[in-house]
C-alpha cells in the first residue's frame, strides 16, 4: 500500500504562465511575475534583509528541484537555487479562468473550474444595493462599512474604530471573486460573524462569487488591530468529484490540514486540523507518523500568501520560505518507501510586483520519496494524476 502527502505552499509560484498577460494587478498585466524567482533575486542582491540576510537558503526545496522548476517554468534563474535536483521535479500550468485559491486547488485536485467567476467592480460602492440590504438584514445593522476593494489589514486600521463605535460590519473585496467581512471578535462577536457569513454564502454562491470570508480581528486601537486565525472561508462546492472524493470513494481516509477543508467545502474529506503554519507543520509531521495505509493527506500552508504575498513583504516571504524549508527538512527523512510527498502551489503572489493581488504563474511540482528525474511541464490536473496513480485510485 501507499500514502500521499500533498502540500500546497499557497502562492509559491515560479513564473512563466503563458496567459499571464490576461491577468492584472490594477492596470499592470502579470506578464513576468515570478514569486520564487524574484524573491531569490532580491535576496541575492541584499534587498531582503529584514529578520534574515543574504541569498535565499532553502536547501531541501532546492534539492527537490525548486530552482530547476523555476528555470523550466519561466526561463529565469533563481540565484542560490542552482543545485542538481535529487527529487522528481516539474512545473504545472493552470487553465481555469481565475488566479484564486479555490480555482488553483480544485484544478490541482483534478477539476478545472468550468465557469467564469463573478468579480465585483473596483468602484465605490463595489456591491449592489440588494446585496448590501441583505447583509444589513442578516446582521441587524443599518448599513455596512467599506463597500469597496481593499487590503484586509489596511481596511481594519482605517475603519476598525468606526466599526467598534457603530457595530457595522466591514465588507470588502479584491481582484479575487470574494466577499469578505471583517468584524471584531469581542465587540461584534466571532460566532455572530461566522453565522452572518454562513447565511450569506448561498446568496453569493448563486452569483458565482467563489467565497464569503470571515476576517475576525482583535485589539482596541488601530495600531493594535490584528486578524486572528479564526478566519473561515465559505466556498462554493467543487463542480465535480475531486481527488479527495475519488480517494474517499475508494474507501480510503482523506485528512485535511489547514484551509483545505474550507476550500473543498469538506467534500471528500474525513477530518481537518487548523492553526498557524508552524502548527500545521507539526500536524503534517504527525500525519507522516500516523496516517494509515492508502490515505491522502492534503495540506495548505497559507501564510506565504496571506502574511507576505498580499502585503508585498519580500523579506517576510523569504523568511517564510526558509522556515518552511527547515520544517520540511525534518519531515522528509520520515517518509517510508511507499510514501509520496508532493510540494506544489495554487497560484503566484509575487511580493516584488505592483498591487496587492495574486499573480498568474506556473507552480512547482516537487515530488519527494519516489526517486529522481524530470517530470517536465504538466497541467495542474497532472498533480491529481500523480497522487491518484500512486494510490491506485482512478481519476
Ligand atoms: O487583503 P486580505 O484581506 O488578506 O485579502 C486577501 O485574501 C483574500 C482571500 O485569500 C484575497 O482575495 C485577498 O483579498
Ligand atoms: Mn491561494
Ligand atoms: Mn490570497
TrEMBL record:
One of its GO terms (cellular component) is cytosol. Binds 2 manganese ions. The keyword Manganese applies. Its EC number is 5.4.2.7. Pathway: Carbohydrate degradation; 2-deoxy-D-ribose 1-phosphate degradation; D-glyceraldehyde 3-phosphate and acetaldehyde from 2-deoxy-alpha-D-ribose 1-phosphate: step 1/2. Mn(2+) 2 binds at residues 305, 310, 358. One of its GO terms (biological process) is 5-phosphoribose 1-diphosphate biosynthetic process. HAMAP family: Phosphopentomut. This is Phosphopentomutase.
Amino acid at each position: 500500500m501507499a500514502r500521499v502527502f500533498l502540500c500546497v505552499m499557497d502562492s509559491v509560484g515560479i513564473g512563466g504562465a503563458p496567459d499571464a498577460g490576461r491577468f492584472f494587478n490594477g492596470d499592470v498585466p502579470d506578464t513576468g511575475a515570478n514569486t520564487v524567482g524574484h524573491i531569490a533575486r532580491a535576496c541575492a542582491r541584499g534587498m531582503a534583509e529584514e529578520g534574515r540576510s543574504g541569498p535565499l537558503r532553502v536547501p531541501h526545496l532546492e534539492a527537490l528541484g525548486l530552482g530547476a522548476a523555476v528555470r523550466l517554468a519561466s526561463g529565469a534563474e533563481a540565484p542560490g537555487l542552482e543545485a542538481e535536483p535529487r527529487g522528481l521535479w516539474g512545473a504545472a500550468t493552470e487553465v481555469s479562468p481565475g488566479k484564486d485559491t479555490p480555482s488553483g486547488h480544485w484544478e490541482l485536485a483534478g477539476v478545472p473550474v468550468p465557469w467564469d467567476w463573478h468579480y465585483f467592480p473596483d468602484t465605490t460602492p463595489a456591491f449592489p444595493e440588494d446585496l448590501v440590504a441583505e447583509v444589513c438584514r442578516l446582521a441587524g445593522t443599518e448599513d455596512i462599512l467599506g463597500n469597496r476593494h481593499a487590503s484586509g489589514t489596511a481596511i481594519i486600521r482605517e475603519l476598525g474604530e468606526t466599526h467598534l463605535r457603530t457595530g457595522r460590519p466591514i465588507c470588502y473585496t479584491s481582484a479575487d471573486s470574494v466577499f469578505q467581512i471583517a468584524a471584531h471578535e469581542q465587540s461584534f462577536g466571532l460566532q455572530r460573524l461566522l453565522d452572518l457569513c454562513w447565511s450569506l454564502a448561498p446568496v453569493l454562491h448563486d452569483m458565482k462569487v467563489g467565497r464569503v470570508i470571515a476576517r475576525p480581528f482583535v485589539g482596541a486601537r488601530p495600531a493594535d488591530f490584528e486578524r486572528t486565525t479564526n478566519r473561515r472561508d465559505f466556498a462554493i462546492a467543487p463542480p465535480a468529484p475531486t481527488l479527495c472524493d475519488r480517494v474517499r470513494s475508494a474507501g480510503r481516509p482523506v485528512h485535511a490540514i489547514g484551509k483545505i477543508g474550507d476550500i473543498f467545502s469538506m467534500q471528500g474529506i474525513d477530518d481537518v486540523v487548523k492553526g498557524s503554519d508552524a502548527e500545521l507543520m507539526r500536524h503534517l509531521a504527525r500525519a507522516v507518523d500516523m496516517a494509515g495505509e492508502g490515505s491522502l493527506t492534503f495540506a495548505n500552508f497559507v501564510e506565504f500568501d496571506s502574511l507576505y504575498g498580499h502585503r508585498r513583504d519580500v523579506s517576510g516571504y523569504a523568511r517564510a520560505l526558509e522556515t518552511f524549508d527547515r520544517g520540511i527538512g525534518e519531515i522528509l527523512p520520515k517518509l517510508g518507501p511507499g510514501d509520496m510527498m508532493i510540494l506544489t502551489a495554487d497560484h503566484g503572489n509575487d511580493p516584488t510586483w505592483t498591487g496587492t493581488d495574486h499573480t498568474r504563474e506556473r507552480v512547482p511540482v516537487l515530488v519527494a520519496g519516489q526517486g529522481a528525474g524530470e517530470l517536465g511541464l504538466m497541467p495542474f490536473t497532472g498533480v491529481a494524476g500523480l497522487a491518484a496513480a500512486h494510490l491506485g485510485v482512478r481519476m
